[in-house]
Amino acid sequence: MVFSSHLFLFYFLPLMLLLYYLLPFRARTALIAAGSYLFYGWANPPWALLMFLSSGVDYICGLALVRLANLPRDGKLPPIIPKEMPRTKGQKAALIISITSNMGLLAFFKYYDFTADNLNALSHALGMGNGGVPILNVILPIGISFYTFKSMSYAIDVYRGDARAMYSFTDFCCFEAFFPDLVAGPIVRYGAIEQQMRSRQHTLDKFARGVLFFAFGLGKKILIANPLAHVADSAFSAGSLHWYDAWFGVIGYAFQIYFDFSGYSDMALGLALMMGFVLIQNFNSPYQADSITDFWRRWHISLSTWLRDYLYIPLGGNRRGGSRTYVNLMLVMLIGGLWHGASWTFVIWGAIHGFMLAVERFQGKDSPYRRLPMPMRVAITFGIVCITWVFFRAKTLPQAWGYVSCLFAARHVSMSANAVAADLYTPLHAVVFLLAALLVWKAPNTWVFTRRVTLPRAALAMGVMIVAIVLMWTEPENPFIYFQF
Q1: So what's the pLDDT on residue 197?
Q2: 202 a catalytic residue
Q3: CA 39 → CA 181, 213, 458, distances in Å?
């Protein structure tokens, strides 16, 4: 089920909110859990069963972590494992089982065919035949990258003593399958939402802000991301382009993925607020960043902080010398690239970002780059990000290298490029492109704009949502970009 569909907007969401506010507090958790599984399993019920089984493993591991600590109950609540308490072998085994089960699911569904294909290619290159590893054409369950990371945060937070375990399996299913953030984030860590599972406030201001978030998120998707998708599709499907057409296409894609993904995050934040939950900000004007380091403080914040806290810091972070720091940065970003998809294009995307993070760390705060004017630093950073988006968007490495060569006028341009250009520069595309640029560099982001709910802002939000809904009926269902991850 997709947020930007009539089924969700006119049936699922109104029914969920009506039942939610009619039921007592404890029953609301069960409603969210049941509704979330319906939401997730609507297109493919076996995916919901897979997530349910995964949740069962993590729930049992969480209980084992607490019970193996032999701590007295803290009233009706599970005790928090003291950080200073030595962890037993049983607790370590429970954590390993949780992490292994989640990583095993991710490895099979997302990386099996990629690994098998590369092993067969390597075997063929070495003259050892075709390898014989079967290609299973595994279908990737939507959102599996997100909910497996959520589950791992639960086990790790309980193990570290950063959060309580859950005694109620219904509560855990509500956390794990929470439909607003289930399929495309933000990646909600258990420690950040644990207390809200037990108690949270429901206020008119919070609900109103949630409506604004949802309205603007829907507008981002329908009014900006979808039209710019045509720009990106035309540019990346062309065999060759003039350099200025190639830049127009990749900047169009940069705008598309930002408004598509941040639009989904806005809608998720809004839906959560309508039910009293406060999730973290996932985007903070990332294209206003003046370095790649700054970019990752602003882009997909829930993923970058997850990788920092659960991978970069455990690897040693910057505590083991400069060389190890650079290795850790590269390794984390390579894993971040693979998290997005099983393809060498994603590996290169992550490698470029990791390399730039290491370079900026090496240069330090007093580098000549830091003395450049702010607008120049923002422009350079955006240019680098756009180049990396080529690898993120391209379907194959040859296509990516070919597009990069077009960006720098290093490729022969065929006559067909003129026909592609005519498809790029339509009046609609030009208007939406300029609107996207204004919103990216001149307007406050949604998180800031919705802090105060005023009548003019509410009227603007309602206008945007009405126009988006009207246009939504004229388009085929268009899933969000991050559904594929």
Answers
A1: 85
A2: no
A3: 12, 20, 28
Output the six-digit token pair for 174: 């509500």
435 contact partners, CB below 8 Å, separation of at least 6: 224
Please tell me the distance from the alpha carbon of residue 65 to that of residue 161, in angstroms, as a whole number: 10
Q: What average pLDDT score do residues 80-93 get?
A: 92
Residue identified by tokens 């607003």 is: 180
Q: What is the pLDDT of residues 49-74, one digit of tens each?
A: 999 999 999 999 999 999 998 887 76
126 versus 177: which is more confidently predicted?
177
Of 16-20, 53-57, 63-67, 197-201, minimum mean pLDDT range? 197-201
342: which 2 tokens?
């099983």
Taking only the tens place, the pLDDT of each residue in 424-467 is 889 999 999 999 999 999 999 999 999 999 999 999 999 999 99
Can you tell me the distance from the alpha carbon of 278 to that of 274, in angstroms, rounded to the nearest whole number?
9
Rounded CA separation 96/102 (Å): 10
- Label residue 149 exposed, middle or buried (CB < 10 Å: 0-12, 13-18, 19+): buried
Token pair for residue 321? 């010398």
**Are residues 266 and 217 in contact, defined by beta-carbon separation less than 8 angstroms?**
yes
SS (H, E, C) 307-337: HHHHHHCCCCCCCCCHHHHHHHHHHHHHHHH
DSSP, res 77: B
Task: Using alpha carbons only, give the angle 453, 457, 461 rounded to the nearest 5 degrees.
Answer: 110
Whose tokens are 């972070």? That residue is 317
* Termini Cα distance of the chain: 16
Decide: 403 and 250 in contact? Cβ < 8 Å.
yes
* pTM attached to this predicted model: 0.94
Q: Which residues pair with 74 in a beta bridge?
A: 77
Which residue in 300, 340, 353, 429 is the catalytic one? Answer: 340
* Beta partners for residue 77, in sequence order: 74
